[in-house]
Amino acid sequence: MDGASATPPPGVRPGYRIGDWRLGGPIGAGSWGSVYAAEHTADGRPAAVKILRTDLLAPGQRAWMDELVRREVRFSLEADHPHLVRTHAALTIEDPDHPGLDGLTALVMDRAEHSLRDLLADAAGRPLPDGPRLLREVADGLAHLHGRGWVHGDLKPANILLAPDGTAWLADFGLAAELEGSHAYVPPLGSLDHVPPEWWSQRTGQRGATVRPTADIWAYGVLAHQVLTGGRHPFPGRTARARALAAQTYAHGGAPLRLDGQLPPGWRELIGDCLLPDHASRARHTAAELSRRVRRLCDAPGVRHRAARRPALLAAGAALLLALAGSAGVLLTSDSRSGPAVAGASSPASASASSSAEGIAGALPEDSDVPRALRPYITRAAERCTEQEVTPALIAAMLKTESGFDPHARRKDEYGIAMWTPWVFHAWAVDGDHDGREDYWSPPDAIASMGSYLCWLAQQFKAGGLRDGLPELVAAGYRTSSRVVLDTGGVPARTRDYVDRVARQLARYSR
Ligand SMILES: Nc1ncnc2c1ncn2[C@@H]1O[C@H](COP(=O)(O)OP(=O)(O)OP(=O)(O)O)[C@@H](O)[C@H]1O
């Protein structure tokens, strides 16, 4: 369980020696100890040394900690694999001059550069550039571990370390336990954000809680969701407890699984399988099978191995927002759908939708430069949305700013009239021209998909209590992500320039 960090043991300074290792500066601290950079006294080999605060434990707990350490070292020696961090030794500090240190246990490990938790903290809501590759390595490490008859039991971003060359290492095997038949026993720890729903209802016996490989599969699903969305947990809630509660509600059938709309195709299904609500249904998906699926997803043509940027979508400035707020008319159609559920849905509306443009909020002026052929699609995309801020004028302003209405536009990894990034597009794709396939080069498809995504953003912000200046927020969210806007509580500074450009365009179309 995530808890407070242990205070560093007193008396440890750079240059302090433990066995053949000389400590450098501190790296960080977890619930059980502090980690220091270190090097070998003979050859300068780098390492990390974790000093465990066994002195703070009651005698019974100390025995338990000894057991964790024993497991960590035994496991590491046995399970040699490129994606598992190596723990070289467990040393007992002998330093009678420093009673605070004397007798503590120190683990000597390969030294990582940082952890996946650090990367996610810096991601600011954007999918990690190397996310699929990292997830492949984690899946490989996990499959190896399960194949050797072990369960990790505490898989989470903080326990995925990144080597200096970027390779992912699974770490912190304190909770890794050998399988006995179909399950293993570990002390009742784990991270609230990554334990499976059944963890909450199981009884902790003398030997600890039961952990099955399916607990790691669940944790992998949460982790993959976080990596591919720049940190978003698959269950809603501001605190880990609230998210854990939401996961239990889902597991008991009280709520559907709502995965983030920006997940790339294939990954959505895989994460859904990892997050099946109970052990039995999850057991169909082994780590070895996951690892093969992840490999296929990573090898698929067109898969991007770095962060996707959403197509730019910009919104109105303050003057315009005032104008919008004052305009009459609310769009509520019988065909209204929004959010992820709209992806793939086709509208029964006929091509005469342009005629309904008259008299609705944000309708396009007759003499604007919006191409006539596109107007029905723009209007229809806005009509599908129940959110009054998503108007034809707003959609047109974004298309104009992004591509100048050029269906052949391309820039880096963004294509077509709405400048969609392919895998983001697939998460929102709508078959706007009803030809049986969704294609970001097709203006009707690209525009309809843009409308559904904008609509979902508007709803997200309203649900998050952000109601003022919604077109502006929606635009900024499209440029970055809903999460970044929600965390900022408004338009992030780095999107301001885009927002202003669209605002000018929007003002022209809102006459
Ligand atoms: N081998 C290592 N190389 C470099 N940094 C490491 C290494 N092991 C751990 N760290 C870093 O040291 C810090 C403390 O790690 P530690 O494993 O003690 O706790 P944690 O995993 O952050 O939290 P907890 O153990 O409470 O779940 C973290 O920032 C972690 O990334």
TrEMBL record:
All copies of the Protein kinase domain together span 21-294
Q: State the residue spans of region: Disordered.
A: 337-367
State the UniProt keywords alphabetically: ATP-binding, Kinase, Nucleotide-binding, Transferase
The UniProt regions of compositional bias labelled Low complexity, in chain numbering, are 337-363
At the top of the EC hierarchy, this enzyme's class is: transferase
- State where ATP binds: K50
| Gene Ontology molecular function terms on file | protein serine/threonine kinase activity
A Pfam family that the UniProt record links to this protein = SLT_2
- For this protein, what is the EC number? 2.7.11.1
Entry-linked PANTHER family:
PROTEIN KINASE DOMAIN-CONTAINING PROTEIN (PTHR44329:SF214), SERINE/THREONINE-PROTEIN KINASE TNNI3K-RELATED (PTHR44329)
What is the name of this protein? Serine/threonine-protein kinase StkP
Q: Which organism is it from?
A: Streptomyces rimosus subsp. rimosus
